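Notebook entry, structure prediction.
Reason for the run: the old model in the group folder had no record of what sequence produced it. Starting over properly, with the input documented here first.
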Amino acid sequence: MKRPDVFDYFAPGRVNLIGEHIDYCGGYVLPFAINLGTYLSIKPNGGSCHVFATDNYEPHEVKVDVNNLTPLQKGLWVNYPLGIIARFAEKEFRLPACDFYYYGNLPSGAGLSSSASVELVTAVALNDLLHSGMDLLDLVKMAKDCENNFVGVNCGIMDQFAVGFGKKNNSILLNCNTLDYSYADFNLGDNVVVVVNTNKVRKLTDSKYNERFNQCLELKKIIGGVREIDCLCDLKSEEIGEYRTLINDDVLFRRLRHVVTENERVFQTYHALKDNNLQEVGKLLVEAHASIRDDYEATGIELDTIVESAVEIDGVIGARMTGGGFGGCALAIVNEDKVEDFMGRLAERYTQKTGLVPSFYLVKPADGAKKI
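New structure, fully documented this time:
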């Protein structure tokens, strides 16, 4: 039943089918919004601004000082809504005296973009309540700016874009350099996407994510000294050997190899989906995981155990890590008749190897952030 004094909003999480760690390199990505996410209920209180949350987030309650909108302790989830509130304040909007209640079914720190989900649900809500007139792309850019410059994570725009522009039963082919995009039917036939949470929680502000970002900046500077490029993903895989002597650091060269080949795998996957060639999609997912494991070194024993175990189980078409890595989640495309067997076998192998117990989510492409 609709509550007359409460305004409700929702923003999904996202899964990136393929195209990892290349959004900030100007690459193409193939994400989709999912049917898990963050709900926000806003109730005017006639007094001050308070942020509340369920047990998914700590602290559970924060009083917002609208005259001092600065980040709180590093790593706190509340910095994401605070950053969005600060951006609206900078545009000289008078913030309403409200209680902000956040809740949902999206695991925090799992690589399903809970941060972008919180950012976008807050931005969509304030855009509506304040009648600011910003369009969805403005809100997406605001959310990315919040994460980069308020929270301190050097992410690209993929997460916020997918959360904002998600469309039911579709994935998004997004050019992260130009923001040109197109929707692609996401038809897996009698197969489903299973997201496997390692339950090794990581925060990107505490991980090597920013280190990888800076390595890519260094690569662009090196290559830009001999060739004009807008972004690293302008390069083709057959060209990268030309820069082997210029890049005399083996680690940096492997980072470049991942970025360039991953960008090409996105297109190959997109066309394989259009051709309904799921076996090729599965093969590309496995190749993508190997690349980010060996060349980008952004996985770890937990993610590697899940993927290596998954591909040996009957009914699995392909698997790879998804999200920022260093823990978080993997995805697998699994025949729907084999899902229960898959989850049981994978959980047994994973726990035996790591001592952790995984969580499983069956996800579907869903619509983006909205008022409900």
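Summary: Residues 30 and 253 are 24 Å apart (CA to CA).
The old model has been moved to the deprecated folder.
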